[in-house]
Amino acid sequence: MSSSATRSGSARRVAVVGVALSDCGRVDDATPYALHAQAARRALADSGLSRDVIDGIASAGLGTLAPVEVAEYLGLRPRWVDSTSVGGATWEVMAAHATDAIAAGHANAVLLVYGSTARADIKAKRRTSNLSFGARGPLQFEVPYGHSLIAKYAMAARRHMHEYGTTLEQLASVAVQARANAATNPDAMFRDPITVDEVLDGPVIADPFTKLHCCIRSDGGAAVLLVAEEYVADCASAPVWVLGAGEHVSHTTMSEWDDFTVSPAAVSGRLAFERAGVTPDEIDVAEIYDAFTYMTLVTLEDLGFCEKGEGGPFVEKGRLLRDGGLPTNTDGGGLSAQHPGMRGLFLLVEVVRQLRGQAGDGQVRRPDGILPELAVASGTGGWFCSSGTVVLGR
């Protein structure tokens, strides 16, 4: 059953009714399991529902048998589970799967939950940085050349610059606007303003990316609770409805990527908008995975907010700011707010807060002064290997 079933007369509608973050940023005294639990408790409290309603759980990135270990830690015995792990896009893909399961009656309430102490583990020397993701299977053919994950993104960015004339200043403006949005977010790790020149003058990490073109490393967790429509009346907050979702995988080896300037969001986004019955022009808020500035730019193109190759001019002149033409990464994103690893779940939390009007000083309003009505969350995994896109509305 496709995600379009959420709008058909034969299936139940699905809503997000609880969202929360755990403590984020610098968290030196908690385990990843504790962050999972903290985020889950807060999301459940946000929903106003009893934990007894949860009969599904989706989690990835922790333990040997995720999400079995996470469910046990949380004291849950779900009858529906998902452990799909496709990097940063995991949570949008899981949201699509959970929506389909609830719509079909296979589950009633599904908890998506994540937590990571990526920053604390590095500081405590419990883990080290890694050059590659592995040397088995298809990846073995690239490992000898020594290009890391960031180098793959950098090569893609360079190709876009070559093909379309995209400039370093345009890429840097993505980081500048993300930081400006973070300024009003009390949960953001970095809130002081930055300039294009400061981005360009930073140390080079992988050409053309300097340090501020790259996401931060933080600790933190998030949780999202999706339920069938009949539970909405008992919830503490207004529902945010899942209108449509799409997913797509592209490649794992760079040699199998047909076009470095096209991300898998070109497919997942088209599917999500078609299934939701809306167009990009109708979207009020966009939350886009931004491990690097180029990800934001090319995903905006591929979701249809501008034509291919026009991402550079599109992101200029403050369009991504909270009061810009397309408020994007309104919490500061992975470039400034938090990035503990697979950050896609944080996108869904921010979308829901914006649509509910619960984003505090970072709240977006439409030109007519009312709250946003439609939003999109689009996650990217690996090195543009996968994408999940979800359209949500009030």
What does this structure look like?
This protein has 394 residues and is an alpha/beta fold. Helix content is 31%, strand content 17%. The chain contains twelve helices and eleven strands. The strands form two sheets. It has a nine-stranded mixed beta sheet with strand order 3-2-4-7-1-8-11-10-9. A two-stranded antiparallel ribbon has the order 5-6.
Summary of the model, kept short:
The protein is of the alpha/beta class.
Please tag this protein with its features:
nine-stranded mixed β-sheet; 394 residues; globular; single chain; 11 strands; 12 helices; alpha/beta; two-stranded antiparallel ribbon; 31% helix
What is this structure's SSE topology?
Layout (H helix, E strand, L loop, with lengths): L13 E8 L10 H16 L8 E3 L9 H7 L5 E3 L7 H15 L4 E8 L1 H6 L25 H16 L3 H15 L13 H5 L3 E3 L2 E2 L9 E9 L11 E10 L15 H12 L8 E4 L4 H10 L8 H5 L17 H4 L7 H13 L17 E8 L4 E8 L1
Parallel strand pairs: 2-3, 2-4, 9-10
Antiparallel strand pairs: 1-7, 1-8, 4-7, 5-6, 8-11, 10-11
Number of strands: 11
Rounded to an integer, what's the Rg over CA atoms? 19 Å
Mean pLDDT: 94
Instruction: Summarize the amount of helix as a percent range.
Output: 25-40%
How many helix segments? 12
Shape: globular
Largest sheet: 9 strands, mixed
Distance between the termini: 23 Å
